[in-house]
Amino acid sequence: MDEPLIVSIGPHIRSKASTKKIMWAAALSLVPAGAAGVFIFGINSLFVIAASIIAAVAAEALILSVRRKDLGAVWDGSAALTGLLLAYNIPPGSPLWMPVAGSVFAVVIGKQVFGGLGHNIFNPALAGRAFLMVSWPVYMTTWQNPRWNIDAVTSATPLALAKHGGFGLLSGVSNWDLFLGNRLGCIGEVSAAALLVGAGYLFIKKYITWHIPVTYILTVAVTSWIFNGRGGLLTGDALFFILSGGLILGAFFMATDYVTSPMGARGKAVFGIGCGLLTFIIRRFSGYPEGVSYAILIMNAFVPMIDRYTFPKWFGYKSSKS
Q1: Which of 99, 102, 154, 318 lies at a CB distance of 3.0 to 4.6 Å from 52, suitable for a disulfide?
Q2: Which of 290, 26, 33 is nearest to 187 (CA)?
């Protein structure tokens, strides 16, 4: 006698996408930004990226072995992507032990302690960056000039100069320079052009939607235009504040993380607006010139609540009030 056919509740949605496919596609989309970082800052950037990825994958394999889990999960791309994103959030002149320490923390504490992929509350790469920032702030705020701009008069990032009233030193830096990557910053954040190429690939593949990136960037743009101008209200250079920090990297590649962002479209929009407001508040009122990493981490903690109040009702759901 044949086994009975068991059918679960509908509707049924089939997709060719898999965790492994999405993770490696995301890693591929980040290659242009990494190539730009190596071109702009030199070969040490490549060493930082390699050390970070190798440490993340090794840490993942070790913890899976200790937990007696399938080691095949090492190759699903999540650990490699965590290491890659962490490296992109580190200054290019960093000693190689820094990406190693950050990646081990990101994978072990930021991911595996919570149960592994799909269970972590916070974005692992950003958790690793926060750990490095708290532990070694001097290294994390020591910047390297682009190779062709060794005579630069400052060692501060554009956002730091803007925050502390050093706009005069930015007179020779245009928004076009910021767009291409002719500025100080972390390895993977400096070239908005390269990041947008990768983001375009993710949009074409339909691995991310517009809701988080657009609402995030638009919120930062509007608040910066209103409140961050040198001539009073409504005089801020919104494009400057979009291009001069890690906003493009954060909005397209980290805030959109499937595990740590809301599931529904409305929730994603709320999440993006929240990230934008927090980024502006940290940049404007704290002692720290950049707020992208902390804004996303804070909003990660609110994702369960956002999903609770914004996620569409289940198919066939009837309200108790009806």
Answers
A1: 99
A2: 33
